[in-house]
């Protein structure tokens, strides 16, 4: 009788341990575009994106990116995964497909990216597309950028791109595709143009990068205004 009780206890303990293992499963995130033979990804001039472009999935943490604070994007950006030419990005077909896993310590399993970045449950995820050196999208005038996400702006919170809890999460695989994005702080998305400059609008597009703003130089009017202000101040000083 004691043996049976011991067996029952060990069996229950084994099931409990199995439950702990199951609840701590990491979450895999598949992201990119739906595979298609037609190019729907363009730059601001309406030209299909080339091998120079980089696609990154990540988070800004508590920082909220807008077209007004683009100079601060890089400082707050935490890349979770990256797709580049021959590694997740196929320019010839205009398709992006990559996979990364959210580990139980809230880091990415992509060892080429910083392991000091953590992705807390509920952080908004974005896909950032830019032209230039991988991992170095520093702001400067005239860059080609697009940033997209799926958030609550469509009143459907069920499909929002939010980083889950890697432990105890029931769904162990998520799929985030650019075609399903609902918001673009910068660039064109699903036949709609948002902030940024572009010279041509394709008849149909999934995504279009826009150019970043040029830092204005002092114009003639401004210089004349400053000169006049200086004269006024000098006159006031002379009267005093």
Helix and strand composition category:
alpha+beta
**SS strand fraction:** 25-35%
* Pattern of helices and strands: HEEEHEEEEEEEEEEEH
Low-confidence stretches: 1-24, 215-238
Number of helices: 3
| Radius of gyration (Å) | 25 Å
Number of DSSP strand runs: 14
Q: Look at the structure and give the mean pLDDT.
A: 83
Helix content: 10-25%
Largest sheet at a glance? 10 strands, mixed
Task: Describe this entry's structure for a reader.
By secondary structure, this protein is an alpha+beta fold. It has one domain. It contains 3 helices and 14 strands. Strands 1, 3, 4, 5, 6, 7, 8, 9, 10 and 14 form a 10-stranded mixed β-sheet that branches. Strands 2-13-11-12 form a 4-stranded mixed β-sheet, with no helix packed on it.
Question: How is the topology of this model organized?
Answer:
Elements: H1 2-23, E1 27-32, E2 41-42, E3 53-59, H2 73-76, E4 78-85, E5 88-90, E6 95-102, E7 125-131, E8 144-149, E9 173-177, E10 183-186, E11 188-189, E12 192-193, E13 207-208, E14 210-211, H3 220-239
Parallel strand pairs: 1-9, 2-13, 4-5
Antiparallel strand pairs: 1-6, 3-4, 3-7, 5-6, 7-8, 8-10, 8-14, 11-12, 11-13
Considering the chains and any ligands shown, give keywords for the structure.
240 residues, alpha+beta, 4-stranded mixed β-sheet, 3 helices, disordered N terminus, disordered C terminus
């Amino acid at each position: 009788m004691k043996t049976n009780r011991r067996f029952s206890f060990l069996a229950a303990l084994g099931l409990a341990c199995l439950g702990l293992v199951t609840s701590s499963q990491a979450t895999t995130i598949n992201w990119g575009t739906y595979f298609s033979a037609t190019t729907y990804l363009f730059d601001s001039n309406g030209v299909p994106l080339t091998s120079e472009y980089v696609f990154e999935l990540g988070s800004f943490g508590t920082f909220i990116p807008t077209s007004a604070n683009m100079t601060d994007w890089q400082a707050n950006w935490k890349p979770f995964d990256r797709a580049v030419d021959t590694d997740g990005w196929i320019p010839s077909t205009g398709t992006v497909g990559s996979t990364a896993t959210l580990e139980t310590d809230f880091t990415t399993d992509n060892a080429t990216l910083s392991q000091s970045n953590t992705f807390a449950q509920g952080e908004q995820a974005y896909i950032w597309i830019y032209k230039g050196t991988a991992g170095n999208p520093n702001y400067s005038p005239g860059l080609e950028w697009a940033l997209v996400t799926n958030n609550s702006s469509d009143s459907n919170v069920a499909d929002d791109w939010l980083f889950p809890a890697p432990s105890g999460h029931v769904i162990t695989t998520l799929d985030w595709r650019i075609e399903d994005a609902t918001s673009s702080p910068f660039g064109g998305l699903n036949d709609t143009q948002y902030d940024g400059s572009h010279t041509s609008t394709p008849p149909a597009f999934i995504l279009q990068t826009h150019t970043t703003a040029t830092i204005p130089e002092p114009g003639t009017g401004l210089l004349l205004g400053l000169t006049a202000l200086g004269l006024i101040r000098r006159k006031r000083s002379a009267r005093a």
